[in-house]
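Sequence of ABC-2 type transport system ATP-binding protein (Halorubrum sodomense).
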Amino acid sequence: MDETATADAGDAPAEGATPGGPDGGDPVVVGEGVRKSYGDVDALDGVDLDVAAGEVFGLIGPNGAGKTTLVRALTGTTEAEGGLRVFGEPPREVDPSRIGLLPQSFDPPARLTARELVDYYGGLYDAARDTEAVLDDVGMADDADAWYETLSGGQRRRTCVATAVVNDPDLLFLDEPTTGIDPAGRRAIHRLIERLAADGTTVFLTSHAMDEVERLADRVAMLRDGRVVASGAPDRLVTEHGGAPRLDAATAAPTTEGVVEAVAAGVRDRLGTDPTVEATDDGLRVWGVRPEAIGDAVDALDDAGVAFDSLSWSEPSLEDVYLRLTGEEYARRGDGGPPDEAAGEGRRAADDATPGGGRAADDATPDGGDR
Ligand SMILES: Nc1ncnc2c1ncn2[C@@H]1O[C@H](COP(=O)(O)OP(=O)(O)OP(=O)(O)O)[C@@H](O)[C@H]1O
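Predicted 3D structure, token representation.
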């Protein structure tokens, strides 16, 4: 979906945003100024968002940012202040058959097999998908006769995903669906999410796996301290907040200020740009090295007498956006370089956020709780 990325929770949707979705229809999920406190803790501090029909909406943020609280508010499994609408209704009034929910913590009966569990949850609905097909979707067809309590952590999580999609929901909430699942299983879950979205299911995805969110989400909202500090399409967020591509050199010897200056001078001469070079924990980093300039940058390292053990080049990703806008970081940084500026931007965005600003997500629950 084409939306300008924003990093200010207090803003209205940016110009070019299509809050009603690509087809201009009503959003499936709307949150306006959503607030939730636990004692002195403001778990949600004024969150706004909308999710369009058929969209995969990613919600990311550090531990304790408020993601699960938001999912719970949107699924009606906890009370929250503010405007919450799912399919135009308060979350607790939504037809449960339209909603799928995979809570972060879900403890189904342990002495049922995976097949029996999917059957059981499918039986709660008038129309459910075929159990075998759902088990196959999550890669559990071969282990379907094992008791839940004997399954591995990843197999359990796959089974839980199966119970969340067995009713073929119009809106699916997945709170960290792939935690503990091996790479092949993750791919199976990703394919399932992609297929559901292609078939029109709206997916509200919470995850700490930035590669997963970057791959799957049409739009992302980043929560920090109960506030949205950025939202937009992943590629736009990366472009606007991810920083520059960089070349990292791992060196045995510590990087001195003299080496940093020598490399900076060399890169300036060879690339004709004014680079940011900084010492890192295991060597040094040159920011702003485009793929076609890697050779020249390496020559500049050689010129400066940098004896490196290994080199790596990387483009910015959603993980960089996350690290910057949450104020966390990768390695030790120099003064005033791109990471510091971006981290400061994130901190400012969070600090400037006003109650009722930003974007968030709403939700509803199939059977009234974390099952
Ligand atoms: N039932 C509760 N009682 C008291 N405090 C709570 C409760 N649920 C959540 N909180 C607090 O609300 C804040 C947000 O918690 P929440 O679980 O929503 O974060 P999260 O972003 O989902 O974190 P994580 O990534 O670790 O799952 C935290 O400070 C947490 O301690």
